[in-house]
Structures are given as C-alpha cells and as structure tokens.
Amino acid sequence: MEWSNYIISIAAPHSRGSSKHWFRYLRKDIEKCGVLFSMDDVEALSRNEALTPFQRVSIKAAFEEGSPTRQHIINLNKTTKRNSIMLVRAKYEQKSDTQ
Fold first, then answer.
1. Three-state SS for 8?
2. Dist. CA 50–CA 12, nearest whole Å
3. DSSP 51
4. Number of domains present in the structure of the chain
5. pLDDT tens digits, residue range 34-74?
6. For 9-20, how does the pLDDT look when each residue is reduced to its tens digit (9 = 90+)?
7. Which of 1, 4, 6 minimizes the C-alpha distance to 44?
8. Reported pTM
9. Whose CA is closest to 11, among 60, 64, 52?
10. CA pair distance 6, 3, nearest whole angstrom
11. Residue 19: which domain range?
C-alpha cells in the first residue's frame, strides 16, 4: 500500500477524534521520511479533502524541519532518564521544605 493511501484510508479515519493518536501515526512516518514518500506527497496530502482541516495543517507542519509541531511529534513517547526525574524531585522537595 502506498504511503499516502495508508494515511488517507487508515491513519486519518482511526485518529479523527484524537490528536495524540494522529501525531503517533505521523511520528512513525517521520522516522521513515526519506524511504516512503517525497515532499510532493506531503503537499498533495495537505490539500486532500479526505483529511480534516487539523490533519491537513498538522501533516504539513510535521514534515517541516525545525517546526514546533515536528519537535513535539518526535519527542512523543521518549523515555525520560531517571536522573532527570530525580532532579525534578529534588527541586520539588527543596521548595516544599522552605514553605
């Protein structure tokens, strides 16, 4: 199945009510960016009437280098290092001790 057909027939209908679900579909596609499609495909999808307005706008932003939407999508589901969690916890404990 061609990438754009997959987006239109499977990803878009299954994620209509959930932006998080839609972004997860896009994240998988961003990881395979050079293999599955070209920027012409992204442009065609951003004009496709089968997608909702949100999906059309977000798909274009997801594949623009440096866009906040792309950064958000790429960072979805990344594991947090234990040290980062411990630093936040230590800061919180310091604030609660001073009150």
1. helix
2. 8
3. S
4. 1
5. 556 778 888 888 888 989 999 999 988 888 888 888 888 88
6. 888 898 888 888
7. 4
8. 0.67
9. 52
10. 5
11. 3-98
